Amino acid sequence: MTIARFCHFPEPLPYPEAVLLQERLVAARIRDEIPDTLLLLQHPPVITLGRRGRTEFVLADDEALQGAGIALHTSSRGGDVTYHAPGQWVLYPILKLGRTEMGTHGYLHALEEIALQTAGTFGIEAYRKEGKAGGWCDQGKFAAIGFKFTRWVTWHGMSLNVKVDLRGFDLIVGCGLRGERVCSFESVLGAGCPNMEPVAETLRRNCEKILERELVEVLEEDL
Fold first, then answer.
1. How many CB atoms lie within 10 A of CB 96?
2. What are the pLDDT digits (tens) for 152-178?
3. Considering the entire predicted model, what is its pTM?
4. Contact (Cβ atoms closer than 8 angstroms) between residue 76 and residue 20
5. Residue-range domain boundaries for the chain
6. Tell me, which fold does domain 2-216 have in CATH?
7. Catalytic amino acids?
8. What is the mean pLDDT of the chain?
9. Which of 23, 68, 76, 133 sits 20 to 30 Å CA-CA off 14?
């Protein structure tokens, strides 16, 4: 099994810093200077607009966002608009897939499978929705996916709502899907919701299994 690095960030990382880190890692991975690397982190409150992002799907103006302490950034990832905040795990795999391992559809399926199996571990009956990427259950969407390939190296990735304050999603039309509910492990499981760390460990194990990489933990300063 291929060995890859896994970095679990202890504190929320501002979105622009995470993008700069990914850009550096992607460039190094293209040059084969580093192995595949997976980042697992949380962000301070931020709304991001993907390549297809439409500003009309941000329902609050700049003054309201500033008052709520929510940043707004454009992103090079696929997809539309989404929201990140503490209580949500964000997975950023930097993987050199080549042209034979899997394409965009296979990679999307793999990220969805990681989300679904992680939710299932904690008792959530999760599934896919045809034509709508992400992780779903009867209470709504708990995982959002938006990624990019640069010379067959992946970046950006997936967010998983665990104990995030869902009121932030009221300020957007999440992923451009009108009328679709957003949920979290906490909103589904109530008092039975796991803490963030057991979910992180489950995500890690599922990444190993589904992406077929042995993950070796490294510190942020070692990236």
1. 19
2. 999 999 999 999 999 999 987 766 667
3. 0.95
4. no
5. 2-216
6. BirA Bifunctional Protein; domain 2 (3.30.930)
7. 175
8. 93
9. 133
